[in-house]
């Protein structure tokens, strides 16, 4: 059992005792929060070593979807923003291959950190996924890998960057761009897909924790040009007993249990 305070960046121990609620408004406004050096070097070292050690067991996935993660709609042209095909390639380690003694489990299960996340997200409780694969994932993006433009189905995403790539692999987003007068704004999305407008890029380095609301904010990770990017996703539910869909588990892990 690790004392969580030993692996958290020095600025944060005090912050946990103050209310994360101060960040809640900022998240609503900006759509994203970046906590620099959330994990200290010692804590990161263990995680990086573990990620490198088990990488050979990871599953390489390639998935294709549209920005809305919805089935093809024949009312729209094939190349419209509604139907245009985006793609993601990466490698992924599911939860059941991560050591029980890993710092990742300590962080994910920590009462004090979960309380901090709950305050920021304005929710009462956070629960793990009700399957053995989906709660904590290690994602590897090597040369040519990236995450195409999309809106999330989930209300929020929590990530921890543990290895920076050398070129590319930038997180880019448009905050709250999805709707116009309460309707899907397909026109603006088309402009983005045609590279006519550029989003905000987030400069993050290893050790940074990011909390992101992606349901209405279009986002992507540009292709890695050089080096390797390793990113942890801490996946929680606001309701108890929910598994990730079998289809998604098959896509990202190559198996369902
Ligand atoms: Fe996303």
Description:
This protein is α+β, with helices and mostly antiparallel strands. The protein has a single domain, classed as Jelly Rolls (Sandwich). It is 25% helix and 26% strand. The protein has seven helices and 15 strands. Strands 1, 2, 3, 4, 5, 6, 8, 11, 12, 13 and 15 form an eleven-stranded antiparallel sheet that branches. A two-stranded antiparallel sheet has the order 7-14. Strand 9 and strand 10 form a beta hairpin. The radius of gyration is 18 Å and the shape is globular. It binds fe (ii) ion. The site of fe (ii) ion has 5 residues, from loops.
Please name the CATH architecture: Sandwich
**C-alpha termini separation:** 27 Å
Structural class: alpha+beta
Averaging pLDDT over every residue, what do you get? 94
CATH classification class? Mainly Beta
How would the global form be characterised? globular
- The tally of beta strands, per DSSP, is 15
Largest sheet: 11 strands, antiparallel
- The amount of helix comes to 10-25%
Give the cofactors and ligands.
fe (ii) ion
Radius of gyration using CA atoms only: 18 Å
Task: Encode the helix/strand succession as letters.
Answer: HHEHEEHHEEEEEEEHEEEEEH
CATH H-level homologous superfamily name: q2cbj1_9rhob like domain
Tally of alpha and pi helices: 7
- Percent strand equals 25-35%
Please give the domain count: 1
The parts where pLDDT drops under 50 for at least 5 residues are: none
CATH topology term: Jelly Rolls
Pick out its properties:
25% helix; eleven-stranded antiparallel beta sheet; alpha+beta; globular; single chain; binds fe (ii) ion; two-stranded antiparallel sheet
